[in-house]
Specification:
alpha/beta; 13 helices; seven-stranded mixed β-sheet
Length: 402
């Protein structure tokens, strides 16, 4: 018996798979705990598959569908999102169930053709915002979700049982490991960091579009959220909706200081350590320190969506900003990060430029407040730098207390 599926609610089954071998999601973001690819089968008067799965789990995925259908034909395939980690098994589904009818947005149809999938327009229904489809007792409505996080995306809401098939929204890194529902985990301890890193790096740029989707969702009586990655939500929906409200509006989750340093020989790192100690002495204990050279940028972006304050400490390198720090700043801008309070520590042995350039980079972003207090280190921290250090620690403490 190869199948491994789970029941979501009456008539609805999870038929996805878990990939623990993939090292880099989208060939860029590290995966240390794997990832799930979710798809769902509805058994009604008509049978319906919601999305397919990555080819890495294709064999498991097909076996799961066959087991749930238990000899029935597949009548419909609803495609909410055509990114290849979800559409890769589409052709296999078409080969095994050639009578299936496809439902997708017009742009999804175009994208699938561009990717080379043999999509027959005669067997495809291209749906627009608010259109519905009945499968028997279940009636679904299709809701456009453009740029969450691709332009063709939609979500599907089952008005009969309150299930929202949410595409990549409300997804997360991490494999499911036999469990399925968010309440089967200690989500706030085990999963929230993976969920935040997934959202901020995959969807984070498109906050306004997510806000638009959240407004649409507020008008639906949602009882289940079935995403394409990560666990299904059936309890405490307010918890994850609140996180998405913060992330998509670029509001920090909590007050705290994230210190990111770029150091070649340890002197800039030492300065960052001194600042962290000064903050602790002032009762500022919600701090995190990162070496930008040894931390993948996806983790930095994730925590930056969490914390309210950011300190950047960088050595000058080739009359510029140290390259990993430069890349971090570029990612911040690319992902639309905004509404943070920042401070700058610069270092150099001659022609110190990093502070000015980091400030310019921050000023090119939206709603970024840069504290007047900063520190300039000439090669190493010395007694003469102490007044500036104390002034910066005082300024951060005062701003955090607002």
């Amino acid at each position: 018996m190869m199948n491994c599926y789970r029941k979501v609610t009456d008539d609805l089954y999870w038929v996805g798979g878990n990939d623990r071998r993939l090292a880099l999601f989208e060939n860029i973001h590290p995966l240390y705990h794997g990832v799930s690819y979710n798809a769902y089968v509805l058994l009604d008067e008509k049978t319906v598959l919601f999305d397919t799965a990555d080819w890495a789990v294709g064999r498991q995925f097909i076996e799961n569908i066959k087991a749930v259908l238990n000899g029935r034909d597949l009548d419909y395939l609803v495609i909410n999102h055509v990114e290849p980690d979800h559409a890769a098994s589409l052709e296999e589904v078409l080969l095994r169930w050639p009578n299936v009818k496809l439902i997708m947005t017009p742009k999804a149809f175009t994208f699938l053709r561009n990717f080379g999938y043999p999509v027959d327009p005669e067997k495809t229904r291209q749906v627009k915002e608010g259109e519905t489809q009945s499968f028997g007792k279940h009636e679904v409505v299709f809701v456009n979700a453009p740029m969450v996080h691709w332009p063709e995306a939609m979500v599907t809401f089952d008005k009969t049982n309150g299930v929202l098939f949410s595409a990549d929204a409300f997804g997360s890194f991490r494999s499911l490991d036999g469990k399925l529902f968010a309440d089967e985990f200690d989500f706030d301890r085990e999963w929230i960091d993976d969920a935040r890193r997934y959202y901020t790096n995959i969807v984070g740029k498109y906050g306004p579009q997510v806000q638009a989707l959240l407004k649409k969702a507020a008008g639906l009586d949602i009882k289940y959220i079935c995403p394409l990655h990560g666990p299904v939500w059936r309890k405490d929906l307010g918890y994850i909706l609140d996180k998405y409200q913060h992330w998509s509006s670029y509001e920090p989750e909590e007050k705290g200081v994230m210190i990111v340093y770029a150091s070649m020989y340890g002197n800039t790192e030492n300065t960052a350590e001194i600042l962290a100690a000064e903050l602790a002495q002032r009762g500022i204990l919600n701090t995190r320190m990162y070496d930008v050279s040894s931390t993948h940028v996806s983790y930095l972006i994730s925590d930056l969506f969490k914390y309210s304050h950011l300190v950047l400490a960088s050595v000058t390198y080739n009359l510029g900003v140290f390259p990993p720090m430069h890349n971090f700043l570029a990612d911040m801008k690319a992902l639309n990060l905004q509404n943070r309070t920042c401070a700058i520590i610069e270092n150099g042995s001659w022609a110190i430029q990093s502070g000015k350039l980091m400030k310019e980079a921050l000023e090119s972003m939206k709603k970024m407040t840069i504290l007047d207090e900063g520190i300039t280190i000439n090669s190493s921290f010395r007694d003469s730098n102490e007044p500036d250090m104390k002034a910066l620690a005082d300024a951060l403490a005062a701003d955090l207390s607002k």
